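Action item from last meeting closed. Structure (345 res):
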């Protein structure tokens, strides 16, 4: 029998000396109960976070080298219900066990599709299907799909409405919709869910580009993952987007934006999306220009019940500190909404 590790090992040791009530696993569960809104419109939405805060996927120098066990321990300790698949995480049954040991769930696996102006690359679908395999093998919920960062768009992120910005050709749009429809069908066949994530520095960033994609695709096959931070960088209003796309929004990334860094990106002082990430474009939830209360209220109006994923691509602070701040800011916002709903009865 494999011995327990991480939070589970600590919990087992505490049980042996009669202090089970103070074990890390028990404390994490108690914290989640305290942070979770017990009533209100979004009380049923699980809350997760994204390990990019510890090990950035796109910029190697922002990878702290934190091992998977430590990341999962910190995600549990700071009050989250689940996680995205991260760099260095186990797969399949090993990941299921690691999550179960900490009373966590696999909320999503992220799949980025290489693309040019002519649409996704020839191997894009196969790459995404491999990510789908990882999701299903570990019992995850959502395949979160985006285009990969692309030359020409990385440099115009935040100002992609410039006429000189490279864009998908008509053939590129057609190819993208075809790949997404095929991937959506494959995902539904497994019993999992897919959602498309518009992303800064890619060929689907601006509200206009997202509208084109949404009108070109089957809502059943291609729901929307709204990353409110990327939506702000792309020039949109997240509350208006939730109102516009309604029930098509089935997955949400809650990400705040530093307005000063965003201004420097739009003015050209920062030369690219990756430079903006290095300058900490995305900040702790509640400390930027995101209207988090407005976003949650709009989601509640639409009867949203999906994951709320707190995300921050990089931080000046220790990752677990930023993760804890985000979780508590979200808890406070959910409590305000629940109290308002109760007072309106």
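Sequence:
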């Amino acid at each position: 029998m494999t011995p327990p590790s991480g939070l589970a090992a600590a919990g087992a040791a505490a049980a042996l000396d009669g202090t089970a009530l103070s074990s890390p696993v028990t404390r994490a569960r108690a914290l989640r109960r305290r942070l979770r809104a017990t009533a209100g419109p979004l009380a049923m939405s699980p809350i997760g976070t994204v390990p990019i805060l510890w090990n950035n996927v796109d910029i190697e120098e922002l990878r702290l080298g934190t091992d998977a066990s430590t990341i999962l321990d910190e995600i549990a300790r700071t009050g989250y219900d689940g996680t995205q698949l991260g760099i260095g995480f186990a797969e399949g049954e090993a990941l299921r066990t690691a999550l179960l040991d900490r009373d966590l769930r696999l909320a999503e696996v992220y799949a980025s599709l290489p693309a040019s102006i002519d649409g996704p690359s020839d191997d894009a679908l196969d790459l995404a299907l491999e990510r789908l395999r990882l999701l299903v093998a570990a019992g995850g919920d959502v395949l979160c799909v985006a285009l990969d960062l692309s030359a020409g768009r990385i440099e115009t992120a935040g100002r992609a409405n410039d006429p000189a910005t490279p864009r998908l050709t008509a053939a590129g749009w057609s190819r993208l919709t075809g790949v997404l429809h095929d991937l959506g069908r494959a995902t539904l066949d497994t019993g999992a869910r897919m959602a498309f994530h518009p992303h800064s520095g890619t060929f689907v960033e601006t509200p206009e580009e997202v509208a084109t994609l949404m009108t070109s695709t089957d809502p059943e096959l291609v729901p929307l993952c709204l990353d409110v931070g990327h939506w702000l960088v792309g020039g949109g209003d997240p509350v208006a987007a939730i109102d516009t796309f309604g029930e098509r929004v089935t997955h949400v990334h809650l990400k705040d934006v530093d307005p000063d860094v965003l201004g420097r990106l739009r003015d050209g002082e920062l030369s690219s999306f990756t430079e903006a990430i290095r300058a900490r474009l995305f900040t702790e939830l509640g400390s930027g220009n995101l209207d988090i209360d407005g976003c949650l209220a709009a989601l509640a109006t639409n009867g949203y019940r999906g994951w709320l994923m707190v995300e921050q691509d990089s931080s000046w602070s220790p990752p677990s500190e930023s993760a804890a701040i985000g979780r508590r800011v979200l808890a406070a916002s959910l409590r305000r909404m629940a109290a308002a709903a109760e007072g309106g009865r």
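Note appended to the action item: The domain at 42-343 is CATH 3.20.20.150 (TIM Barrel).
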